[in-house]
Design a protein that fits this description.
Its main location: membrane. It is a multi-pass membrane protein. It is found in: Cell membrane. InterPro entries: ABC_transporter_permease, MetI-like, MetI-like_sf. The protein contains twelve helices and two strands; from the N terminus they run H-E-E-H-H-H-H-H-H-H-H-H-H-H. The protein is mostly helical. The chain has two domains: 38 residues; 240 residues, MetI-like fold (Orthogonal Bundle). A two-stranded antiparallel sheet has the order 1-2. Strand 1 and strand 2 form a beta hairpin. The chain is globular and about 75 Å long.
Length: 295
């Protein structure tokens, strides 16, 4: 009897430790997910609700602003990935082959990743200032090249924002690739060297296949991160994604519809369409991992 009572008290103590965490998850994770799904089927401003059915989803699929936001999100994500993955691979290979100061270079490249994105946006606004007062334009004009509009020009704003995102996040990618490089067996390099392969051929035929799963991981997670892009584009272009809506991402679209127009039903529907996109990317990631394991 006493033993049973002791076990029961231990169980109660365990539940006492778990319940605050479970309550937080239910309140701040599960409830918003369920409530957002419910709101996506209503016309509502947060106070008055009327049943909408699938109208909110149909509206989004016919809304040019929604498709423009999706296109901008994919372009920004694609540009960032096209720069960060090759760049992180080259830098990680260089750090991995360095004979000294490896820890120093890891810290230097990772330092921007722990910097506030708001602070990064402020610094890059100065660097990419659209006149000769900006550091980048000052260098360009010094080289005899024309100054660019950067954040003030729809033709160059995406590139500037992509470069800003790459600078902020490439340190994380470098550390992930470094982990992959360290997992490549050294015997493969020795065998390639015996076969007469030079440094470049070793890198191409040994290093790249060895880190291919890591590169796939960075590709998928990079696109998922791009889907959730908000802070930096909001700091640069405001809720409208200026200039000319060229920086309007899906997250900005949801924010604008939900908190500016107070159309919470449409904003919730847009959030769930974003969830579908992220879910498909995640599913593709798992499928690629499974396919690589079979090889």
């Amino acid at each position: 009897m006493g033993k049973r009572g002791r076990i029961r008290l231990e169980d109660l103590a365990g539940w006492g430790f778990i319940l605050p965490l479970m309550a937080g998850l239910l309140m701040f994770r599960l409830y918003p997910l369920v409530e957002s799904l419910r709101l996506s089927f209503f016309h509502t401003n947060g106070v008055v609700e009327t049943w909408a059915g699938w109208d909110n989803y149909r509206y989004l699929l016919l809304d040019d602003d929604f498709w423009e936001a999706l296109r901008n999100t994919l372009v920004l994500g694609g540009m960032g990935i096209a720069i960060s993955i090759p760049g992180s691979l080259v830098l990680a290979t260089w750090i991995h082959s360095a004979r000294w100061c490896r820890t120093f270079f890891r810290a230097v490249y990772f330092l921007p990743n722990i910097t506030s994105m708001v602070a990064v946006a402020v610094v890059f606004q100065f660097l990419f200032y659209p006149t000769d007062q900006g550091l980048i334009n000052y260098v360009l004009t010094g080289l005899g090249l024309p100054a660019q509009g950067w954040f003030a020009d729809p033709d160059t704003s995406k590139l500037a924002v992509a470069l800003m995102g790459v600078w902020h996040g490439i340190g994380y990618s470098i550390l992930i690739v470094l982990a992959g490089l360290q997992s490549v067996p050294g015997e493969l390099y020795e065998a390639a060297s015996i076969d007469g392969a030079g440094p470049f051929r070793q890198w191409w035929h040994v290093t790249l296949p060895g880190v291919r799963p890591i590169l796939v991981f960075l590709l998928i997670t990079g696109m998922i991160s791009a889907m959730r892009r908000f802070n930096d584009v909001w700091m640069i272009g405001g809720e409208a994604g200026n200039p000319g809506g060229s920086l309007s991402t899906l997250m900005l679209y949801i924010y604008r519809v939900g908190f500016h127009s107070f159309e919470l039903g449409k904003a919730s529907a847009a959030a769930y369409l974003l969830f579908v996109v992220v879910f498909l990317l995640t599913l593709a990631h798992f499928r690629l991992i499974r396919f690589q394991r079979r090889e």
